[in-house]
Every structure is written in C-alpha cells, then in structure tokens.
Amino acid sequence: MLNYRITKYFKIATFKLQVKERFINEIYLVKSMVEKYETRCLNCRKRFEVEKGAEVAECNHCGSKWRISWVTPDQPKVQGPA
Ligand SMILES: [Zn+2]
User: Fold this and answer.
1) How far is residue 40 CA from its own chain's centroid?
2) In angstroms, what is the span from residue 60 Cα to ligand 1's centroid?
3) pLDDT tens string for the chain (82 positions)?
4) Residue 53 Cα, ligand 1 centroid: separation in angstroms?
5) DSSP state at residue 7
6) Any idea where the domains of the chain sit in the sequence?
C-alpha cells in the first residue's frame, strides 16, 4: 500500500516535471522566433534589425542589402554587400 502511494506520488511528480520542461521549451521557442538583433549598416551608419540566424538582411533605413555573419549566436555582423 505504501509502495503504491510512493509510486503514484513519483508518477505525478514526474508528470509535473515534464509539463514544466515542455513549458520552458516552448518559451525558448517563442523567444527565438521573436528575438531580433541589430547591427550597423555600412552605408548609412544606422543600426538595423537582423532576424536571428539570417544570412542576408536589408537595412530598413537606406534599403542596402548585406551579407550577415554571426560573431556569436547573438551578434550579427555585416560581411559585405549581398
Ligand atoms: Zn542603411
């Protein structure tokens, strides 16, 4: 009887943990879709938004297209004209 109760308790605890993990994973997924990064345009010298992981980005100030490299997963850098 005690064994049964312990087993049941652990099943519930495990389930709660799985729900929590899934919830956290979804937050990260949404975060990575929403997150935008900025780098400086070599043409107009203004900062423009680059979507995470993008290889090409267009400056929203002057319309120049740039090839993008990622110094770190969070830091885009203009490589040259696209
Ligand atoms: Zn620009």
Assistant:
1) 20
2) 7
3) 678 888 888 888 888 999 989 988 887 777 666 678 999 999 999 999 999 899 999 999 999 999 999 999 989 999 999 9
4) 19
5) H
6) 1-34, 37-82
Q: How far is the CA of 35 from the centre of ligand 1 (A)?
A: 21
* 64 within 8 A of 50, measured Cβ to Cβ: no
Around ion ligand 1, residues with a beta carbon closer than 5 Å are: 41, 43-44, 59, 61-62, 64
Sort residue 27 into left (φ over 0), alpha (ψ -120 to 50) or beta: alpha
User: E strand or H helix at 31, and its extent?
Assistant: helix 2-34
Show the tokens assigned to 80: 């040259």
Rounded to two decimals, the pTM is 0.59
Selecting from 2.20.28, 2.60.40, 1.10.10, 1.10.3470, what CATH number does the domain 37-82 have?
A: 2.20.28
